[in-house]
Each structure stands twice: as structure tokens, then as C-alpha cells.
Amino acid sequence: MKLNIWVRTLVPISMAILLGTLVFLLAQFREPPGFKWYGVAWFVGIICLIWESNWYVSRTLDQRIPWEGNLRKRILTQLLWCNLCGILLYDAAFVLLNWYENVILGNDNPLAWIHMAVATAIAIILVQIMSSIQIGYQVMEHWKEVEVRTEKHKKETALAKLEGVRQQIDPHFLFNNFGILESLIHESPQRASHYLEQLSDLYRILLRHLDAEWVRIEEELEFLTAYARLLKLRYGKAFSLEVDLDVGLQQKLVLPFAFQLLVENAIKHNAALPERPLKITIRSNDSSSVTVQNNRQKRTSVIVSNGLGLHNLSTRYRYRVGRDIEVRKTKESFTVILPIKG
Fold first, then answer.
1. Is the domain of 226 the same as that of 291?
2. Are residues 67 and 131 in the same domain?
């Protein structure tokens, strides 16, 4: 967690000056009165040192016990280590101060156990105050980060849904399907009716999954199959889709439109010709992932792409599953490994 420079420096200095001034004023009522300048300097220095050591503890724990999903454990662990480090630092500095007064200044004030007990009590109080401020600040910053990530995820999900809808209502997509439908009406009204049913099935499934966070792979394959039928009518022998997934695996969960997006991506970036068909395969990788692969065939025409589809899919998986999709490119193939849930 990055720290604000004001929190890192001004807060401990202000706290040290405030408490140092308070101690200085109280010291005026003792016998003999007075609190030397080196005492204030020592007090300011030890507070800054403990403050900085607490941040060091926090940075170390960020790697081992992150705030995400470990809030209670993180707070208790950080309090424990901050107390240990703070008490050791304060007591060591107190011994050093006593040595300075007796050896350098020539005072006669031998160190007793009661002095160490009082010093330890003061250290505990100071560490609790500083740790409370620091942990409170970190918890608030963590909540802000979570809110930002949540809003970002909502945006990415909305963009992904919009992209999925856009691909299906894209003017070229509609134009091609209506063109096919028109030709089928003249050639074979029965086939035209069948094609129209498949097209309506596609949009029906699309609307059903639009607000879902997760869908079963079985349901996603239902949507993909309806989509593939239209592609088959459009491309004929130039397109093929093979699905080889275990029945048990099909009951697990995947993000909506993940398969369709990858199929659309393959069609967009590769040539599909009867003599060189575009082949897409979906198969089980292991119990926690599915592989979607297509052969790479350079297009003669350049397709403009904003790259949002694959990027949004990657972002959604990182947020929802805690794992990223894996992309593998070779000269012959393009492979995406999708994590699954359940």
C-alpha cells in the first residue's frame, strides 16, 4: 500500500512535538523543575522511529498477509508485531538516554527496574496510539481500493456485456444473417424457417444470460451451439467447431459469453476458406480450466479491432476467480485457457 507523504512524515512529527511539549510542561512542576532540550529531541526521535518501524512491519505483512480476505488476522498480527518492535525500540532508546545522562552529562541517576517498567508502560501506550492511527488509515485506504476495484469490475462487466450484445446486433452481423435468410426464403422456405428459429434462439439465450455473473458450461455451450449453427450456414465448410468436454465438467461455471467471445475473436482475426477451413476446438484441460484453440490463418483483409473483448475477459477473470486467462500463440495456433469455477 502506497503511503501519502504527509501521513509518512508530518503526522509522526506533529504527534512527537505535541506529546513532547506536554511532557515539557509537566516537567516544570517537578523538583528540580525542567526538561532539557535533549529530552524533547529524544522524544521526537523515538516517536518517529517507532512510527517508521510500524510502517516497515506493515510493508512486510503486505506480502504475507494481505488485507484482502484477511482483515481480522492482519489487524491482530500487525498489532502484535508493532507492539513487540515498538517496546523494544523504546526501551533500548530509554537505556541509551539514561547512559547519556549518567556518563556524558555526569548525572547520578542509576537505572532501576521501576524505570524500565514505567518506560515499557509508556511505550505500550504510545504504540497503541500510533498503531491505531496507522491501521485505521490503512483500513480506510483498503476499503477505498476495494470500492475502486469493484467499480472497475462493474465497468468491465458492463463493457463485456455491451460487447457481447454489440457483436450480435452488429450491422454486418444482422446484414449477413438477413441476406442469408432472404436467399433461403427463395431457395427453401423450410430451411429459411429453420434458420429464423435458430436466430431467435440465439437472441433468447443471449437475453437470458445477459445479467448472469456465472453460467454453467452446459448453458454456455447451448448458446455457442446456436451461434455456431449460424456461422456454419454462413461459412459452410470453411468453418468447424469441435467440443470435447466431460459431462461432469459441463456442470461447472464459466463467465457468460466467454466461449462465444473467443470464437468471434478467432473469426475476426483469421481467414476461413473451404480449402483452408477455420477449425476451433474446445476441450478439457484439467478439472479447473478449459482450452479454446483455433488454427491461425492470415487474413487478406485487415480487420480493425479495439482489443477490448479479450482484455475485458481477462480483467473479469482476475476479479472473479483470482486467476488470469492464459494466452498461448504459435505460428500454427492461438490458444486461450479459461479458468472455471465449481
1. yes
2. yes
Residue 242: the pLDDT is 93
Domain total for the chain?
2
- Distances in whole angstroms, Cα of residue 274 to Cα of each of 237, 240, 281, 312, 320: 5, 10, 18, 32, 39
Spatial distance between the Cα atoms of 126 and 44, rounded to a whole number of angstroms: 12
pTM: 0.51
Name the 3-class secondary structure at 251: helix
Query: Based on the domain organization, do 48 and 118 belong to the same domain?
Result: yes
**Assigned domain for 159 exists:** no
Do residue 198 and residue 320 come from a single domain?
yes
Query: Helices 113-169 & 308-321, crossing angle to 10 degrees?
Result: 140
Query: How far apart, in whole angstroms, are the C-alpha atoms of residue 23 and residue 41?
Result: 12
Give per-residue pLDDT as tens, 11-42. 666 666 666 665 655 455 444 444 566 777 77
**DSSP conformation class of 29:** T
Residues 140 and 176 both lie in one domain: no
User: How far is Cα 220 from Cα 199, in angstroms, rounded to an integer?
Assistant: 16
Domain span at 281: 170-339
Strand 239-244 and strand 278-286: pairing?
parallel
Residue 161 lies in a domain: no
How far, in Å, CA of 135 to CA of 147, rounded? 18
CB atoms within 10 A of CB 142: 16
Residue at which a domain ends, from 148, 183, 217: 148
Runs of H (alpha helix) within the chain = 5, 11-27, 37-64, 71-99, 113-169, 171-187, 189-209, 217-235, 258-269, 308-321
- Residue 11 pLDDT: 65
Structural contact between residues 47 and 19, judged by C-beta atoms closer than 8 angstroms: yes
Residues 111 and 196 in one domain: no
On whether both 204 and 97 belong to a single domain, the answer is no
State the cell numbers at 88: 523494544
* pLDDT at res. 327: 92
Beta 278-286 vs 289-295: how paired, if at all? antiparallel
Question: Does residue 244 sit in the same domain as residue 142?
Answer: no
